[in-house]
Amino acid sequence: MIHSMGTQQRKEKLKDSSSNNMTEAQETTATNMNQTDSATLSLDFKQLGIFGRDGERRALQTALQRVQKNRQTHVAWVEGDSGSGKSSLVFSSLEQQLQEGNENNCFVVSGTFDMPHNHHDDISNSSNGSRNSISDQQSSSASHSRRGFETDISSDGKLQQTFLYQGLRGALGQLCQQILSLPSSSSSPGDSSPLTLEAAKAALSMGLDHSSWKVLDMLIPNLFSILGGGGDAASADEISSISNETGGKNESLEGQNFKELADRFKLASRQFVQSVSNFLPCIVLVFENLQWADHSSLDLLSSWINDSENGSLMIVGCYRSDVPANAALTEMIATYEHDSRVSVQKIILHNLGISEIEDMLDKLLSASDLTANVMLADLIFQKTHGNVLFVVQLLQFLSKKQLFQPRGDHWEWDQSSIARQCEPIQSISDLMQLSLAQVEVARNILPIAACLGSAFGASMLFRVLDNMNDFQNSPADLRAMEQQLQVCVSEGFLESDKDEGRYKFVNHQIRLAALKLVEESGEVQLKFEVGEALLSSCDPEEMDDIIFLSLELVNPYAVRLKPLDPARMKIARLNEKAASTAMKTSSFKIASWYYRRAISLLPHGNSRWKGNHYNRTLRMYRAAVVAESLNGDERAMFRYVDRVREHGHDIYDKIQVYHVLMDWFVDHGRAEESVDLGIRVLNQMGASIPSNDIVVAGSTITGLLKTRSMMAKHLEEGIDRLPVVHDYKFLALMKTIDNLGTACYFVRQNLVPIIIFKGVRKTFKIGVTPYSAVFMAGYAFAMMAHLGDFGVGKKCADLALTLLKKHKTKDFCSKVKMITYGLSLHFVTPLESLVDRLQESYLDGLQSGDFESSLFSSVLHTQALLAMGRTLRFIEKNCATYINVFQDIRDKHIVEVHNAARQACLNLMGEGKNKNTTLLVGSAMNQDKVIEMYSGLQNNLVLRDSMRYLQMNNAVFFGDFKYGAEMAVRFGEQMHKTLQGNIITTVIQFNSAYCCFRMAQDLSQPAGIRKKYLAHALIVHKRIKDWVSKGNPNCRHYCALLDAELAMLKGSSSVTVQYCLDEALAFANKDGLIHIEALIMERYATFHKTEQNGNDFRLRAMSALTLYQEWGALAVVEKLKQEWKHDLGKILEELPTSTEGGVVNLDMSIQSWQ
User: Cβ distance 978 to 947 under 8 Å?
Assistant: First the structure.
């Protein structure tokens, strides 16, 4: 043990203080004992904590019954001051419910968020606080110039929560423990009970892929025990890597995309809650002290609440109203108050009134003297103001003093004696300290236990005491330790779970009082000693479980250590490890806090950048840049960046920081700055990229020629001879090129081909990296979508998939497949063959953590389903599933594409809220609000043009050709440019040409307008015909239908028009495109109506109505029935309204109409 001087003096002072109290207590007890009646009456305090809460208990019980009955999610907020009985209310309500219906198998678990020990100025008060700072030279803030940026641990001046998902881990750990207690399998062949461990494992394995297990390891204790996955060795490896001071270029955080990891972590946690809530009959998650929950925990909890796929799940959040408001919690509660999709109730507990205290005393004491009862109630109310905990504890305190005397069937007391005992008690804290000090065991071990949190294990406390070398009266063994703790339980200070060997302070106030038994000047040192003992007593595999608690205890004292003290450096490395763990579980605010702590413990000034300290310092600063970029602290991020730029030895020491900055610029709408930075960095790395537009044009042609030449050679020779490259410098170069390509896509699209060409050539010159497949897929996309070279594009797409297999990495699987299947191969491959591949790409992204590519793959999958004419109900449900999966992703604007597609389907199905069926307004989306939310969508081109495509698509089917034609003329080419190569490219082109051809035939339009429409239609028609001539199998039906429109416009013969329509119908029928068949039949019907072919019109009209109905477009059916009701008459009554298996027998229907 180090730095443990002063412990003995502190204990002696504590012993002297408590002995005086004991003397007075013993005298009082002796006096009163002589007056004790021989009766056997006893006071029952157990139910007083829920006294007067009958209405609130019934409300919670009713809510739980509703959850169990309806298989829904329900949230109950319970608000009240400390000691108002929130926890007692909740658990008594649930206990009664379980006793009433034990067969319901309701699983009740709880988790508590502890108040952080640390205050925002606990480091700034140290003598070394400001000298470590990088902000001393540049700070524009008075507070920062006074204390220093890197030691300003919490800039908002509030307590900083530094425990990682503390309450959530506690609750989910208990839940796993309860699942593990289930019988391993059915007890007999005839036993139909699904609640077995074997069934639980099957349910979780189905809901969670193996990659999610490791992601959830830090959040859910015992998960591996259920799944049978064994332990994870990552913890020991991380400890080893932190202790290793030999290098800083390949640390574990390097190269990880923490934005995607955050999305993956949140999704995995939701999948776990979703799986268990659907497997178990009912789950109740109770969270106490929610006012101290960190932002990440609340964010995760919110995602669970929002999940529409949950089973029976009740979440109860208890929080205090007498502490400064937690802004994140306040916002969360306010959000759900106005969210009709979530079942929510709020219970506010107030202090007891004097009349309620009178009733409580009457129930407890059965006093015969009502006046005495009223006087005692008045005294207690004056002291406690009706706080339930204070009232109960004060009554228990008076009872222990033997101030209540049994007389027959009631109790009596002396009011003046009680008043004297209450006189020094001014607060609950005074009472708790007085009570604790009178119990020797409590004053010896509870201050130590209080350092371990609101709940602790007996074995952990024993090990800590055993490792505190100068601690007197340490228990001889664990059994002796538990005996002492049981004394505290009997005194009402602790609650116990004997089966688990865990103990919990009855209330936060008792824990605070235990800490206050130590003098304020010695509290920091005591915590340091406890933290040191905790670290000394743990095995390496236990480090993840205790590191945050240990650092919570040792950090306030660590800055008092000398700058080069080995203990100080050890604590710095532990803070770095804690930050790394927080990063991997998406707790970026906590990670930032620990990185600041770690950096504050490094040697002072520039000396930290010299000698053996350089690699460690560089590693911490680079990681801190990542953390602050995700934490949203721009000022902190740039300060760390400046230090790395200033002190980094070469470009490769700085490259990770530059990658973070490039991504950050793009995410914050500053892609132009990302491009400029990327070009400068690549120039330093010897891979120049031109920035002048004139030079760019020439470089594009030159790059294309060079790349084509190299491509031809390697396509002929094969790529097997290319080596797989692991050199970190080359990987850094390829990542920089990839990042630059992403930035250029938004603001400098003329540079994208140059970047793709450079990435491909680097692969052929040096070797294969994970980025090689991405560049090859990009080259295939460029060949097909931009240059129309389908042959070379197809070969390059195949080569991209081959490179993906060659490198054997899943990190880029989703991205490569998304580009290949969704943006390239649809030019030469039927959609039917690609739709499953896109869903595979979506799943690959979920498993690897590439949520951006997974999300884009899901959008392309939805668009493919629309293009293939799958039933609208199926597509709508598919969209709802995707929306639920991606509800927490950071790229919210892309998720809106699914909302838009869903609303378009609802409009076609007749379930929209508006009569204007091209507007995307209804239960799934309000397009005006989305446009306002994203500032006119100028920086969200994919969402903007996807919404335009869906509106134009609906215009085609609802016959609003003027609207569609106007959009085509105004935005058609812009949409083609934005979504060029997209799997719906051919659909967009067809919709544009079809609407314009229809309007060009509308003689009510001025000739100039019709000419404008015709000109646009002819351009697009030519483009589609060119694709067909090159072998595109997904636009033959479009081309034939447009040929028919052109024939009608030219006044061609009826035979020619019908030939084109029949050809279009044959292609659509062969490909199973029911929506296009319906559209062609509708067009056939209007053509026959114009030609006055009555029988042919009725046949085609009824076929169109039947096909639309089968597709699910009931709003289109109703529109056409209104238009044709005079022409079809009673025949409309023969339109099938329901079919066996949901499929209309079209041939039989046609025969009956004929």
Answer: no
